[in-house]
Amino acid sequence: MKICSTLLLFALLLSGCGRPASEAIRFGLSANPVTLDPRYATDAASTRVNRLLYARLVDFDDRFQPVPSLATWQRLDPLHYRFRLRPDRAVFHNGQVLTSRDVKATYASILDQATASPHRGSLKHIRRMDTPDDEQIDFFLDKPDPLFPGHLVVGIMPHALLTAGHPFSQQPVGSGPFRFLAWPQAERLRLSRRSDLQTFEFLRIRKPDVRVLKLLRGEIDMLQGDMPPELLTWLGHRSDVNVVRRDGTTFAYIGFNLKDPDTGKLIVRQAIAHAIDRKSIIHYVWADSARPAAAILTPDHWAGDPALKGVPYDVQRSKALLAQAGYDRQNPLRIVYKTSTNPVRVRIATIIQSQLAKVGIQVKIRTYDWGTFYADIKAGNFQMYSLAWVGIKLPDIFRYVFYSGSVPPQGANRGRFSNSQVDWLIETAEAQPSLAQQSYYYRKLQELIVKELPYIPMWYEDQVYVTRKSIHHYKLSRDGNYDGLLDVTREDSPGGV
Length: 497
Known about the structure:
Layout (H helix, E strand, L loop, with lengths): L1 H13 L10 E5 L14 H10 L4 E3 L5 E3 L2 E7 L2 E6 L14 H12 L14 E5 L5 E6 L17 H5 L14 E8 L2 E6 L5 E6 L3 H10 L4 E3 L4 H8 L4 E16 L9 H10 L2 H7 L5 E3 L22 H10 L9 E7 L2 H15 L4 E7 L1 H10 L4 E6 L7 H6 L17 H12 L3 H18 L2 E14 L2 E2 L16 E2 L7
Parallel strand pairs: 1-10, 1-11, 14-15, 14-16
Antiparallel strand pairs: 2-3, 4-5, 5-7, 6-7, 8-9, 9-10, 11-17, 12-16, 12-17, 13-17, 18-19
């Protein structure tokens, strides 16, 4: 078994190892940040590191409702929001005071088509911005949007440097709790915590077993996420590390091509959904570090539906639906299932292949490198696939994913799903003047989506971090951000592993 050989390798390599002296707290990552410019950050690593470097107008509470960060706000009328910067806000890393002019310049840059920011679409209803003084900025919209404050989460950048064409992607200047020190290699990023000048290094180490080995050798201090469950279970039995988990919001799902002659049939999607034993996969593959999901939004989200249930595991029901749809041993349902080459995703695909075989569905698994796989999904070149949504906070995800007009490149309706009632519920929810009224229609929408099954909801994956015993006070967030680094400390002790 691969896990056994890996653990044996650890045992051989760890003997006599000690932690090299280092002033920095070292954080092992599976992937580099792509950019340190918040106008372009969309990948998880970039988004999480940028939160440390740049302050934003708005953040979210535990139920994902917008709350003040840099600024408080009032909704003066359906098309007019007034924001006032907090007097205790931090200055930019270059010493300049952050003013409303910087806020306006940041969002004007994102809205400029020449900038080609991927965040432009979520801000498209901004018609005008006024800055009557250094503390106040007024946003005027061309369409009412009660969710508007929740879109103002891009880090604020200095107006003067934006105008000068400063290379923020490699030399960030924000007003966040961390400041940039150096990025000498793609795999090594150095930041400094402003409160006490503690240095942090973010080191890319692609393979999870190598990340763990480096942690146990003392070459890194902590790591978070992207770990095989078997390795986490093994680490959980060691006395020299801390393994901490909490409920997460990463939503795993199976998607379908609704234009396909087979998966385009609701009865086929229902049969597949009933044939998948999600609880067993969660237990045996994820080591119970996930929760069954019924919708993209978690039940405790302000627009979530705690009463909603996913499709139950029911082999006999699945077989009956397949027979009703005209499939049998002489005419079996044949499905091509695409996934990435990630070992955990391939293992899950293999288990689903076996579970579907029990009801007579023949599945061919096709694995691809991430770039090829993702390009196929965006192009609609699939019959069935598995993916996950990470860090979802606003219910506008439903328009992006399920609205009939959101087929790529206009959105992420990759399965080409089209349902007039779904469209109506999305439009009606968006038109409501309050979040409470919106939540009513979003819950109705989620009920309908479970019935129509453009996705099979699978589970919400837990967030997990692993640290050496010398690391203290790191608080893990539900969406996997790195905000816990604001309080983390290291207390070194003599000796090594």
